[in-house]
Amino acid sequence: MKRDAAHLIAVALAAATVLVTLSEASAQPPASPLERFRQLEFSPAEENFYKAGWQDRVATEFDVINHAELGALRTALKDEDPLVRSIAARALGIRGDKDSADVLAELASLDSQYMVRIRAVEALALLKLKPEAIEAARKDKHLAVQWSANIVVRQAASEIDDAAVLRKAFAAGIKREAMGSAKVGQPAPDFSALTLDGKSFKLSNVLGKKPIAIYFAAFDG
Amino acid sequence: MHQQAQLRLKKDEVEKLGAAAFVVLPTDLFHAKVFTEENLLLGNGTGPFSKEISLVYATPLCDPAGSAAAMYGVSRKCLRWQSWVENEPSWFVIDKKGILTFAMQPTFATPTSYVDDVDKVLAELKKASE
Q1: FRET partner for B36 with CA separation of 20 to 30 A, picked from A23, A70, A179, A215?
Q2: Which structural domain range is residue B121 located in?
């Protein structure tokens, strides 16, 4: 009898321990957008997402750009992971964080990864700061950096406020269930975009009125 | 990207169908304008598009956050400078009733070679206009 009671107490204690552990685990704050970005799987050879998990990447990029803390993004410019440095540079450019301009200029010239140098140069163009760093990037050792810098040097001098354009577009968010919702044989999903003069366009303005061909370009730099 | 430019070879037929054609550029506004108004990629070549003012055929649309692309399940799989690839798929055709009738990944080969994908798109546009 005593043995049964002892056993019951032991079981109860074990159950209580599990409950406390679960409770502590559930009390942990959710991972930050940057941490979730860090946990994404990227193919080592491919610049962009491919098949499995692309929705996670899209959703997390939106989250980083919309919600990551500025301090965390600035710190992430020195992260050891070049993909994290890249997304941080992009987010800071879009967010218009002028305080990060010096570090972005440093990355634009000194980062070992050309992808980070591109993102840093692009961010400076969005901020319209450090034109000398953008100009210097036009002579970068990597052709892709030169290519990007040759375009954004004009963007930096233009009157278009693309940081604001991007902020607005990202702020609109994206629903996970909407991603990949276009299916052959079903009604084409409506989407919003901008015309080149910055006006709003909705596919529904022409849907159901005439045949439509759409080509999604793959340019990303 | 180069491939949609080839649709210009069928421009008259597209217009005859009364079809709308859009090129969605997953970039900010400035880049969308540059890619539309300047033939940066092929302008220095000797291929059939080297003399074109612009590579973008049809109405260009700017998709700054990539939301439209994500909705259409398009993965922006573009290797920088290592090899050219296109989205998977890139082409979509929608009929007069608003039904998505066709999606295709291009058999993109080289920037200047003619590929018959544009013929397939045109054939689908014809069906979509019926």
Answers
A1: A179
A2: 2-125
Q: Least CB-CB distance to A174: which of B30, B70, B76? A: B70
- ipTM more than 0.90? no
Beta bridge partners of A121: none
* Positions of E strands within chain B: 20-25, 59-62, 91-94, 100-104
The count of domains in chain B is 1
Mutate to test the interface with B, among A214, A219, A220 (most CBs of B within 10 A): A214
Please give the pLDDT value at position A72: 98
Give the closest-approach CA distance of A64 to chain B in angstroms: 12
Q: Say yes or no: A51 contacts chain B, CB-CB below 8 A.
A: yes
A208–chain B Cβ distance below 8 A for any pair = yes
With CB atoms and an 8 Å threshold, state whether B90 touches A216.
yes
Instruction: Report the residue of chain A nearest B122, measured CA to CA.
Output: A213
Contact in structure between B56 and A146 (CB atoms under 8 Å): no
Q: What is the pLDDT of residues A168-180, one digit of tens each?
A: 999 999 998 999 8
CA distance A107 to A86: 10
The answer to whether position B120 is within a domain reads yes
pLDDT band for position B83 (cuts 50, 70, 90): very low
B32 belongs to a structural domain: yes
Are residues A179 and B73, on separate chains, in Cβ contact within 8 Å? Answer: yes
What digits encode the pLDDT tens for the residues B9-53?
778 888 899 999 998 988 999 999 988 888 666 556 666 656 666
Q: Is B63 on the interface with A (CB under 8 A)?
A: yes
Residue at token pair 């001098």 = A157
- Is B80 contained in some domain? yes
Evaluate whether residue B130 is within a structural domain: no
